[in-house]
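sry for the spam today, last one i promise. struct tokens for design, 170 residues
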């Protein structure tokens, strides 16, 4: 399985990167699924890792698209929170784990909704990048850790912004 095609500009020069090795056993109780939801009326992608936010997605008529990866439920060494922000004026959910993302969320008037889980700040064995994309025409932020998500983002006119962190693949 190929995870990132270098020609897309996401993985540097050279051939496609091979899939990472399977992660060390992470107890199911210590992880949570990062789900991707979509609301066509809002033009909003919404990624969430908490039961409360899954319910929020359902209540707001979002449709489940896929699982993006696994987050840690508790903060371990080398991890940071994956924050969820919300903008009522844009009707946009924004997940970020970087200082740049947090700063841009507050600067754009987003409010902090909570912590979805924890991501690694650098790649550890068995993890994959969690990419941040932006579509200015839709006013939508979108994070993905899957090749399907990356392909969909580029096909829909999103631009790569940065790597937010690293998660275990599904």
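last one done:
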């Amino acid at each position: 399985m190929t995870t990132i095609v270098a020609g897309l500009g996401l993985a540097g020069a050279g051939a496609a990167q091979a899939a990472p090795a399977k992660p060390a056993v992470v107890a199911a109780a210590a992880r949570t699924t990062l789900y991707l939801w979509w609301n066509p009326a809002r033009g909003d992608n919404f990624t969430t890792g908490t039961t409360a936010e899954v319910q929020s997605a359902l209540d707001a008529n979002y449709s489940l698209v896929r699982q993006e990866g696994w987050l840690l439920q508790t903060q371990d060494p080398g991890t940071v929170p994956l924050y969820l922000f919300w903008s009522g004026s844009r009707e946009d959910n924004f997940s970020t784990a970087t200082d740049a993302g947090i700063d841009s969320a507050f600067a754009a008037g987003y409010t902090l909704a909570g912590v979805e889980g924890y991501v690694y700040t650098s790649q550890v064995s068995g993890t994959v990048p969690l990419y941040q994309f932006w579509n200015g025409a839709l006013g939508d932020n979108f994070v993905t850790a899957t090749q399907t998500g990356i392909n969909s983002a580029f096909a829909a006119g999103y631009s790569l912004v940065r790597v937010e962190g690293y998660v275990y693949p599904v």
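The longest strand covers residues 63-72. ok im logging off now
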